[in-house]
Amino acid sequence: MFLSVSNLTKSYNTGIITHVLKGVNLEMKRGQIGVILGPSGSGKSTLMNIIGGVDSADSGTVEVDGERITGLNDKQLVEYRRESVGFVFQFYNLVPNLTVAENIEVVSNISRNPLQTDEVLSAVGLFNKKNRFPRELSGGEQQRVSIARAIVKNPKLLLCDEPTGALDLETSRGVLSLLQKVNTQFGTTILMITHNSAIAGMAHAVFRMRDGEIAEVRQNSELIQAERIEW
Amino acid sequence: MALRKRVWRIIKENKGRYIGIFILIFLGSFYFIAASGVGSSMGKLVTDFTEKNKQEDITFKTNKPLENIAALERESGALIDTYRLHDIKVPNGELRLLSPSTKVNIPAVTSGHGLKKPGDILLDPIFCKVHGLKIGDQLKLNGRTFDIVGTVAMPNYVYILKNVYEQYPPKGFGIGLISNADFKAFPKAATVYSAYMKDRENVKAKAANLNRLLSNKGYSLSEWLNAETNARIAMVRGNIEGAKTMGAPVAAAVYLLCCLILGVMIQRIVKSDGVVIGTLYAQGYRRGELVRHYMAIPVLLSAVSGLVGTLLALPVVGPVIGILTSSYNMPVTGLSFPPLSMVLGVLMPMVLLSLSSYVILRRVLKKSAAELMKGDEQKTKVNFLERKLQLERFKFATKFKLREQIRSIPRLLFLLLGVSAASMLLLLGFTVHNSFQVLMDSTGSDRYFPIETTFKEIQHGAAPKGAEPLNAIRSYLKGNEKAEFYVVGLEPNSIGITMRDSNGNNLPKNQVNITYLLAYRLGLKVGDTINIVSKVDGKSYSLKIDGIVQTYFGQYIYMPLEEFNRMTGNAPGSYLGLLSKNKLDIDENLLTGINDFHNLNEMDDTTTSTLTASVVLITIVASLAGAIIIFLVTSMMIEESRSTISLLKIFGYRGKEVAKLILNSSTPVVFIGFWLGLPLMLAVGNTLYGYLGEQINMVMPMIVNPWYVLISFVLIFAVYEVTKWLCGRKLAKISMSEVLKAGTE
Ligand SMILES: Nc1ncnc2c1ncn2[C@@H]1O[C@H](COP(=O)(O)OP(=O)(O)OP(=O)(O)O)[C@@H](O)[C@H]1O
Ligand SMILES: [Mg+2]
């Protein structure tokens, strides 16, 4: 398995102890798209953050491409994120005073074998806007930039936390089909969080979380094209 | 009110920054009050002394004693007084004995009591200190014993120079006052006159009148000296003007820097509070209430720091006056604080800072509640410079750093100007110190024959064996009466004075050569033709400059002796002085003086240590100011880039890489700022000393020593590194969750 999570637990102590992850198990093959669905507060982001190496678990293991993430120290985690993971956030998180191209260079700057900035910009359809600043772009365009930024280092694993959460249907479709294209074109494994079960149709694997546990796993044999998603 | 708590929280959260601004404003008002207090106190001391004790307007000697002084006084409207003067060697120094006068230059007894009985003597306190003498001690002069009964200050010897054209008093030199009766023991004493104009209007013209009157009556006048060109009197005035002129501009510069940075900070606070403000508007808060509210920070901050600065500066004035007057001799009767300055010390920072904050506040608060609530204020706008900059060809790190800097232009300006100012201060301290050192070291260094013997009367015929003749007139450049110098005639084959050009080659002595210092002061270069006027008889001559003597000593124009004699109408072979390697055996009665240029003009210890202490103080203040400025900018930059920093960490940037990108972005600005400080320092230094030069016929070029520049550079960058290191810890504290949780709050 490319990604395997087993018995992952995590709790917060804010006076009262909250068990956020109560033994999560999850597996994904290389090159797949996985979608995590679930209600707010069910622990989706927490799980993804641990997989991405930006948060730590209490117990259990996460392995990515044979590397055990849960055993790494802070320094090793930096190298793991640097080499292997791409991030896409709900609110884009572009650096406001850098141009589109420069925002992408933020990542390619530290990658060993980055793709060409112009190449990814063309791939997300924003080549002609590369000298604009983020606030001069629409939300959908900003999210495309953030995807371009995440894929420029050609990551093994692309993590997207509600990438369409702030977008309308039409724009969301564009962003999702871009992710689908990245998946097929570069073979990138993608794990995506969404509130929207309509999106589940484009994923190979769908994980439904409830209250800190994976309540249901579904494998799709037929994938829906992102352009056809309706909600 | 909840909003009030918010303001306090903002201050508490950014303690470091507000403390930094506090210190800057504090330094500004402290300096302003101290400088204006010192300036006005010195001014008052000097005016009190000069007016009450009738400081002379002119001093002069005559070829024969003045007759019927009362009639002369009536005719000229002046008080004319006579006093006696005699220089007498003492172990390790020399004492100039003066007789007390009652009309002009009235002595002020500063401790002990006045002259009462024969054999009493009053000394100047500096002389007492140097020679370890105190009241009650005895002093043997010419075999006679004198009782030291007190210390005295003379209005015509505020700065106790032996010769008016010297820059520093010779070591161990001082003045003493003995009664006219006791002067009988010194039959060789000279008689000197001093005059004080009763009507204080147009003193200069009246002085010229007196000169004419005396000349018409057949007196031949020598050593005619106006108070304003007499360094013994004018030196202290130069210092007062210096303190006064440097007080306000420096403080203003500091305040303006503070305005810049505080403005940026207020803008940030108000912007990030935009939504809150909009909501408050919507709930019926009035604009005025909000303005008042956010103004609390600048008003409070500037009022408190201005007040603290003012209060702490007050007790400093006394000791500073003590230090300043330690090289002068005058009664210190009391301090004076101009009320306007006191008020300004507190109000100026308050008005400036509040005003600049108000302007910024208004811009934000003009918006409607709806606009503000949308939260657009928080979004970073891209400024003109960021948009215009074409950076594609640069490395990413370069682009990133550049953008980080130009993100806020006021912040960038603050850093640049702040570092320039701090560097300027640092360089100024070192350079003034260095210039003094160089001037001291080069004093007399060009004299192969260090002994200069000057006659009272023009001599004719051959010079004694081992000596070279010279002739000289005291003169000035037409139109610039304050810059006095000597035109010196020397034998073309003279070896007594070494003259080299800037390349180290010997200059021919059969031409007109000017010393570098004088050329610098008068702005002359080789090939210039100048008109000089003799101070003795007012005749003017024209000279063409053929060479510049590379020396930091002396203000002279050298020319061949015979040509000099021809030009000035002296018989061939005339000379007024002799240069020699060793002391000549000549009857002292024929001489006005003997100077040993290898043992001249030594700065006394107090001056040197005061200067060193000032340099140390300046270094500390400059480094502190530099540190604060860099800290303020860096911490603001980190604050504004929090989410970017968090993002970089998520993307797998190593701690050092983040630190490099964010913290090192200021390096070029600090670098440029430092080098801007150099010309700035030269400009300020030359203005300052140009002023002093005018007052006391002294030149003080800013001589930059590369080593000191290097030290300053290292110091500024050390301060920068330390500040970066301190801020680096802040950087490490920013967590990845800032981005991960963004939008969830
Ligand atoms: N730092 C923290 N301290 C305490 N509790 C936390 C912390 N971070 C998250 N939690 C809690 O963990 C639970 C899971 O949070 P998480 O962000 O993973 O939910 P989520 O499924 O992503 O929700 P959403 O769909 O709203 O993004 C929540 O109940 C939250 O309150
Ligand atoms: Mg979430």
Automatic annotation (TrEMBL), chain A:
GO terms for cellular component: membrane protein complex. Coiled coil: none annotated. GO terms for molecular function: ATP binding; ATP hydrolysis activity; transmembrane transporter activity. The keyword GTP-binding does not apply. Keywords: ATP-binding, Nucleotide-binding, Transport. It comes from the Bacteria. Belongs to the ABC transporter superfamily. This is ATP-binding cassette domain-containing protein. The lineage of its organism: Bacteria, Bacillati, Bacillota, Bacilli, Bacillales.
TrEMBL record, chain B:
Residues 251-368, 617-735 form the ABC3 transporter permease C-terminal domain. The keyword Cell membrane applies. Its main location: membrane. It is found in: Cell membrane. The chain crosses the membrane at residues 21-42, 246-266, 294-317, 337-361, 412-432, 615-638, 658-678, 698-720. Keywords: Cell membrane, Membrane, Transmembrane, Transmembrane helix. It is a multi-pass membrane protein. This is FtsX-like permease family protein. It comes from Shimazuella alba. The lineage of its organism: Bacteria, Bacillati, Bacillota, Bacilli, Bacillales.
